Amino acid sequence: GEDVEQSLFLSVREGDSSVINCTYTDSSSTYLYWYKQEPGAGLQLLTYIFSNMDMKQDQRLTVLLNKKDKHLSLRIADTQTGDSAIYFCADRAGTALIFGKGTTLSVSS
Amino acid sequence: DAGVIQSPRHEVTEMGQEVTLRCKPISGHNSLFWYRQTMMRGLELLIYFNNNVPIDDSGMPEDRFSAKMPNASFSTLKIQPSEPRDSAVYFCASADRNTGELFFGEGSRLTVL
Q1: Per residue in B9-38, pLDDT tens?
Q2: Residue B26 DSSP label
Q3: Is the CB of B106 less than 8 angstroms away from the CB of A92?
């Protein structure tokens, strides 16, 4: 079945850039998503990219999509301590979303 | 809108007991999803409904799990009998019919002793 893979942990210093990577297997994906989960809370949509785009920028967030390699990345510029959370990559499979296991981003001051 | 509302937020029960988790989706959303989150397996899709009809329940782990959506504003996920390995956070999400964006509830943390 469809699979979404992410590295589990990333640790950065405040002010640095963070890059979270994701690979997926479904070549027919139309949208790919990044969700953020803060402790004790549900997931919130951060951003998404349509599959015919290579890049999408939204303030401090940059999403890069390499459709040939089925690779998606999320770059957070000027990372802040408030960015510490779990970040999930998700691929649309029909109506449902299939999520990766999530990358825990730890930001130290 | 209040968002997706789940109850209870926390449930501690003993092995063998029945557990019922509840979800109220966002009004106007026509798709509803139940996910389970554990450290080991991440977020797993259990089942989803379109227009109150179950579409894909292949993620439901076994017959002890059942889900219903009797109307557009309410869904339940039931585990009977519960087992310690069912301990997890269970999320309900509903989808905007136009954009497909998923909106998550805050989850129900289940502990089965």
Answers
A1: 999 999 999 999 999 999 999 999 999 999
A2: P
A3: no
